[in-house]
Amino acid sequence: MQRYLPSCKHSGDTPLFTGHTDRITLIGKLAQRVLDSGSGNVIAVFGNSFYLSTADHHSCCVGTPKLPGGPINVCTSQWQLSPIALNTRWYCKDQCLYVGNDIVLDYSDSVPFEAPMRLNTETTTLPDGNILKLLKESPDPYIGDLQHKIEQRLQAGVEAIEQWLQSPSQCVPNAVVELLGCGEGLTPAGDDILVGTMVTLHQLNCAEKFSSLARCINTQADIRTNHISLAHLYASCEGMAVDPLHRLINAIFSDDTSSVQQAIEALNNYGHRSGRDAMRGVTAVVCALLRS
Amino acid sequence: MSEIINEVRKGFYLDSVALMRMSADISALGGILDAVLMTGTPANKQIMKDAGLLNDTGEAAGANDLVIALRADGTSSANRALAQAQKSLQGKTKNTTSSERRYSTLSSASAAAPEMNLALISTPGAYAAREAQLALDHGMNVMIFSDNVSVEKEAALKRKARDLDLLVMGPDCGTAYINSVPLAFANAVAKGTTSVIAASGTGLQEFAVLLTKLGAGIRHGIGVGGRDMSDEVGAISTMMAIDLLAADELTDQIVLISKPPGEKTAKAVFEKLANCGKPAIACVFGLNEIEEKNIRQASTLLAAAEMASGARLEVSDHNKSAKTLTKGMNAKRKNLKGLYTGGTLCTEAHLVLKDNSVRVSSNAVQSDPSTPHQLIDLGADEYTLGKPHPMLEPAVRTPFLLEELKDPANAVIMLDVVLGYGAHDDPAHEVTQAMQTLHGVSDKPVVIGTVCGTNDDPQNYQQQCEVLKQAGVTLCSCNSEMAKLGAAILAQL
Amino acid sequence: MSASDLLTSGPKVLGVGLNGFVSDLQSQNIPALAVDWRPPATTNPEVLAAADRLSNNSLAEMIDKANEKAIERMLSADPVLVEVQPAGDLIEGLGKHQILHAGPPLAWDAMCGPMRGAVCGAIVLEGWAKTLEAAEQLAASGEIEFSPNHHHGAVGPMTGMTTQSMPLMVVENRTHGNRAYCAINEGLGKVMRFGGNDEAVIEKLHWLESTLGPLLADTLLACDGVGLKNIIARGLSMGDEMHQRNVACTSLLLRELAPTMARVSEPDTAYEVLNFIAGNDQFFLNVAMAMGKAIMDPVRDITGSSVVTAMSRNGTEFGIRVSGCGDEWFTAPVEMPRGLYFPGFSEKDANPDMGDSTIVETVGLGGFAMAASPAVAGFVGAGSASDAANYTNQMAEITCTRNPEWTIPALDFAGVPSGIDVRKVVNSGITPTINTGVAHKEPGIGQVGAGIVNAPLACFEQACRALDKRLSAI
Fold this sequence. Notes:
Number of strands of chain C: 18
Distance between the termini of chain A: 55 Å
Helix content of chain A: 40-55%
Oligomer: heterotrimer
Mean pLDDT of chain A: 82
Shape of chain A: globular
Strand content of chain C: 15-25%
Structural class of chain C: alpha+beta
Radius of gyration of chain C: 23 Å
Number of domains of chain A: 2
Strand content of chain A: 15-25%
Largest interface: B-C, 57 and 55 residues
Structural class of chain A: alpha/beta
Order of helices and strands of chain A: EHEEEEEEEEHHHHHHHHH
CATH architecture of the largest domain in chain C: Alpha-Beta Complex
CATH class of the largest domain in chain C: Alpha Beta
Number of helices of chain A: 10
């Protein structure tokens, strides 16, 4: 949509924007912090979204309405992405996000993204075998030898999570730490697995394991993975992830096979395989629970 | 021995699908044993290291950098793959999704673009006739750049085209101008009212360039291919071309450039040309006299261009230049050598030298082998087998040039440099490289050259000339003038 | 465009070969288009000569006419899903010890692992043997008569087992009055079409026979069938290509069936059946296959036509049939699919390409409609939406026409390329692209991945020569 910015948003020397303007509908908590920091650069541009970063490398993702709600996501009402160059400057002023000379996004009417309430562990039911089967069955294709090597490491990490959760130890095993930054893709698969694990632990009020793993992520992740993935990991340390992941966790523990199925499908559509990898982290917690 | 190459892009993020697809695409290239694009996190670097894909460059990457790592069976395949990776990375950042529609066959392309009226065929010769046939079936005129089409197929194609009122140019038609538009190997020449029927490529190029230098220009230049006027083909395209140009309102005069026609065909061609109703000039190499009185005859391309334009090209005094150039030359130096990239230019030079009483042997024409003077057409089949044509890749000439420059018996070496569309970007460069071997040498041959090009050619004409002059090449205004200078130099010895 | 037009209006150039000449012209703003030319894939001079004869002059005119007729029959088809019946009642002579399979004719000795596994399962299902071991002995003894589905008006996915007791869906072509059959999709996991044959597989098949089949039959009778042309048209606009992705069409079909089904059956049975269909994204594939067969059968045997009427694989060979060559099969060794594998599996586990499902490509869907389904294009490694469009556009180079009723939004509503012309395949070297599932090479393991495969050029070369031979004999 093309429209000019309302004149009240202009203060003297600001040039008139001629490009896209639109409203931001939903802002994640961590994304809000990024915008509040004032200004920075565009660090990545994809088909339906782009990432903003601050000077101290905190980042958030701005996307078309297709982007699900999430702690580091900024969702817009109907804006179509116009070409944005890497390293374009962004800044915020008067509740508007300005990106380069072409894009203005007004967030005065936006609402914050809320992660669902923690589950009441008194009333939750443990998932049955059918649900577990669904969680484990979804296809996860890979190609090539190197991918095989990555897969082996990821699998070792997932198994380590399961064992650790069943043990009394507060010390996070190496194989779990080594998941950080492991894997192809924008957000390495290992990070996605950890995000899934963290959010599930948080939702289930497993406070001790959650804080051990959070401490580990907070101290180790910044040297082990990239800034974009880091933003997702930090969000998970506050118990938050993208909406479809929360939905899946809730569906699993409400013992509703069909909504699990729906949630899996929605998650599969998130990122290339990030959703599926996060699900492996969720599954690891579920398996550990079922065993102990 | 396998080759590992790593490249690191700082702070570069790509979405996962793109990354994986590019890994797969690059792995699929020939000679690539393994390839991956990953962020350089410690965990990933360890994996790449274990897989034998990491070198020091990749090792230095940080968690926010993209590492392109590949292992190939040799340096060349590794570099090729890296280039491919860089190209697709560039493509990805541009954020473009629309792609131009591509057509795999002449039929589908012609169906989608029915306005196309000329198929320019430059496939390997073995396939050219089939594509030409298809083009005719789709109602298109045809220019066959390819060679190695049999004379039987050529005749059959041309007969079919004649029945359909379509024109076939070639096979082996390197140059043409239609409505002053240069096609294939051709220079950016001036528009004009002179039309040409040419059996040769560089002949037409040189003529059109000279015409431009003389202030006139080209309307059409119809290339008919070297065999059109043979008795086997019977000048089908030449005859059609004469009719077409005679009927073309914007054509004032017609120039024919060719080798001598076949015995049976000659009469018909010249008769038709003489009676076409427009002034006609013929430059037929190796034919002494044409009976038709209406046709003006030119012995060189320069003479033809001067006749057509009515202007004269300023030429220097060859004897004077020859004297200056041969001053102090070692008396043992006696021979003339010519290394040509343009076939017709070679033929023309041979005839000019002959007219100036220099006996020369050459692979371009039937000639006397018992002479030390020699002209080589490096574009002839025996030199291009499995190699690019020297007009596409001037480096082909370099080893020959180096040898001739070393030969203590050589007095003068002749070179052509052909510019224009289709030709190499910087053909002068290879010559100047070879010329460096003469640097500081006192006992050396004279090197003379000619540049076939115009100021509007995609290469920089002035710069090419300048570079050659600085390298010690004496430039002549055209090919026949160069041959005359060559003869004058021999006469000085 | 005559020669004098060329001289008066100036050159508009189609470049075939070196692309530099075309870009030189474009840089001078002269209209010029480069053909993405490559040498013909066929090197056999006899094949090239045959293709040339079929592509030129009077013969070409005659073939073009015949193809027009073929296309007219294809496009005028009106396929309707009408009923479900046990195979034995539908197919004449299908009785004891007779098994129909996918692809061109095939003997037991030549069958691949999954095909053998499925045969054994089918024998047990029919009760001709008690155990799989006994079934294998029976199959090897020569007691079992094997025959391709295609010879009996039927098609089947992957191994394509059809035996007397199996319920088959019937698609009637109401324009031409012919009918075609396909078994009911068994769902995911261990299934007979991928060579599965254990108790669970057999049990599922029994359920199809006893519950789903009869209820679907009643429903279809009660609602006077379900027109398929429209479902396909809408499915294409919803991201289905009808081979790898049938989510939209399955949902649309379910929408057609559910109200009537609820009326004609017990609620519990309706729940069971609807739930089964709803949980199986590929349910519609088998319907689309029967539809393909119903559309293509009237195109068979048009003298002179070079249109492909069937493509099919039996796990060993790929076979095609061409209208002008009647029921003759042109076969070549089948190729391995290229694609993505499920975790724990790789190319090493894959069985060569298999199944009658390529009938959907024959009518212009599947790989031919890739542009409609970027999701599938991604899964099979084709990548972006524009890559997907390229697949479809490339198929347009080997087909006679585009189907104006089945259009693809992403291609500005251009129709799916329809009517594969063997001449165009041989002339261009472009072979049909097929979207396919990949079976494990050992029987009973099931699907291990998905990808694309190309029809072998050799089939089309043989067809060209055979057609040339037939036509020069006239």
